[in-house]
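Narrative progress, year one. The postdoctoral researcher (J.K.) led the effort to move from monomer predictions toward full complexes, under supervision of the PI. The following entry was the first complex the group processed end to end, covering 908 residues in total.
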Amino acid sequence: MSNTETIEALHKKTYDEVSQCIQCGYCLPACPTYASMETESASPRGRINLVKMAAEGKIDILEDLKEPIDLCLGCRACEVACPVNVPYGSILEHAKETIHDMEVRGKGNNRFKDFALNQLFMKPKSMKRSSDLYYFYQKSGLQKVARSVNLPEIAVKDIGAFEKALPRVPSKKYQIERGKRYPAKTEKAVRTVALFLGCINDAVFYHVNYYTLELLRLSGCDVYVPKEQNCCGALHAHQGQTEQTKKLAKENLLAFEEYEVDTIITNAGGCGAILQEYDHLFTEAKEWKAKAKAFSGKIKDISEVLCSLESLPFQERLDAVVTYQPSCHLNNVQKAGAYPEKLIRQIPGIKYMELPSKHSCCASGGVYNIQQYEESMKILGSKMTEVNVIEPDIVVTSNPGCLIQMSHGINTYGEGQPESIHLVELLARACGIKVE
Amino acid sequence: MNKISEQILNELREVVQENRILVKKSELYSFSFDASFGEYLPDVVLQPQSKEEISKIVTIANTYRIPVYPRGSATSLSGGPLPTMGGIVLDMSQYPKAISIDKENMLAIVTPSVITASIHDKAEEEGLFYPPDPSSSHVSTIGGNILENSSGPKGLKYGTTKEYVIGLELVTPMGEIVRTGGKTVKNVTGFDLTRLIVGSEGLLGVVTEITLRLIPKPAHKMTLLASFQSVVDSGRAITNILSAGVLPAAMELMDKYCIEAVEHYQPSGLPIGAEAIVIIEVDGHEASVNEEIDKCSDICRSFPGAVVKVAKSEEERVKIWKARKMVSPAITQLGPTKISEDATVPRSKIPEMIERLHQIRVKYDLNLVVFGHAGDGNLHPNIITDKRNIEEMKRAESAVGEIFQAAIDLGGTLSGEHGIGILKAPYMRSELGPALDLMKMIKQAWDPHNILNPGKMFPQKGQTKVVLTQNE
């Protein structure tokens, strides 16, 4: 594909979308990178305009467009603020796809991208490899893993920064066995659901999946855990690797198809968001698009389902001050942002303190915090200032990326206090679910 | 068009921090537009951090005759901050933000980069009230509001931005730092330069500090929605209410095309089939508010077929206003390009103006919808089109010209709150006549080298109508 053809392709994909922007600027106050980088090119309105300029051939895709696009967190808070519903997420992914394709052709491909996404998350069929990699990580450390695949030194250093943010995980016996049906722990099952495990939660945070499963069972759900499910593909999509995303999407569509459930549970906002948008991936393949539509309609975050079941068996008072950093994708894409707070408020003994900037991203952004470490830390720093004012005992999150990021923030700016846990872990404690 | 040589850039580097000098192509394109039309590349974007920096920048600009374009959040609908002749964009949105409320004197002293809504919030915390409420107030800077003299629905009762600005600090086009007005509401010492600067669209100075007058916050408010079988009735209802001695905080009108667009986009319970609806809000002490809302209802109901719904709870009140806020997103579903005008007429002429607008809609076969702040005669005829459709854009250009002419014919004005910028400049002579030359003389005296925001407000040679397609 020549340069002109690339520009034409970008134009075809997204020009109608970018033309919807009326440049009113209502997105500016919602954008965390506009606030931290203090320039229009780091705002949604600025980025949309730059994509438009690139599609018109006025600026160069790699020279001029790539950097501002790379600096976007993809939190999509701008979509909620937009009065005319500009599909920013779609524009962003079209731009990333174009940039990625050009880089691959120009062999300027970012090696970290390849490592993180294809080695770590893109696993054929079974997810076993990632837990093996995790085992390797536990033995030798994340930096060693990164070095072993010849990452540039700067990325190794920045990955190393997150080393301490990863949790000490409980025994492997809590890792969920796939291809099984887990019966409800109530007298009668009220609902049958399927559980989406996700790759990071399955490999690193499998206690989060375990708590999710147990909370569902205690609330009266029979839970299927389909065997052939794979990584959701969100990180690939955010890097513009559309083909890989489609491949993963197809695997997941097939994996869940055979189960007759009306709800598929996720516990990671980042996964939930892309799963809910699988149908956007298939523009021409009608059969897949139909499958994806049916699948996407079933995706629900664990918090929404637990809220609607209203049957969590709280057993213990948790006398703790709790604050919550939402998952942007749970808020802005899944539109399920209200449920986690609702659940936290129900827990006996909890004093819930709202984070003033709760609608603003923690700057985890998938792997943004590794790729754009310094920019990410600026945003995290101001978030942590607010956390430190509240002085909570626990910071709750609802996505593994946010969990690592907030833990990192606490280690860096909060002297290791408070602790940061996933919402389901907090609920599990209150419901007396114990792990060793 | 490169006006800025390496040598000039080096001189600017002596004044402005390196990270506040933006020259990358991606940055220049990001400062090339606002919420109106066109795309104009600056040569450099500067983000000054003090009035001294601004003074030095302006001095350098004078030496080398470089245009300087101050810019806030660039929400302008008239092209106010567009760098039409290249040169320097002075990005004032990143100027240090400071806001202090003087409760005793009921004042707010703010820097220009402060977002207007945060003045609303801070004032409210002290039981005070800053009334000007442009619909972009959660995005726009107070600096931009001052220089465009913008306002919103509350203009009817509380007046526009100019009523609240009593003191300014600014850098003149020659680089001097001066103060106008002060902290007193009464001040007759010399010419009222404060008033001159407010609404001067950045032609006369770069404002660096603003002293705003605040008023006590009204304790209570009530809202109603009335629908009418004819536009004339809605206009009469508005004038009858005002002449009955009730001064509502807001009176918002929507024509049938707006109603249809909203209901089509997101059903909000608006009466389909009505020719016009009016939203009326009254505020003040509870007893008088109750009395006034009843009076408004009675007057509206006196028109045949009119239906009135008074909000009985805060929830219902919010719902009524939500329908009004839906107008903008709803109408953009009709097309990607929105030409938003703000021609204003004496309020008695509103029915006539709406009829003229509907005739223009038919004549040019355009999607023209009308809503706006009817109580003060400030209508927003919006043409929804697609700027890629050159043929339709040409029709829109002619329609815009006729809208302005209609407003002037009815004793009104080109702009109630959006400003002149580049979009209305061609029509200035037809409204102002020789007064336009007085304005030009003031500009010439203040800014002999035409450094600040050149190309705005005054028609360019041979320009008689707006051209919306030139830059495409």
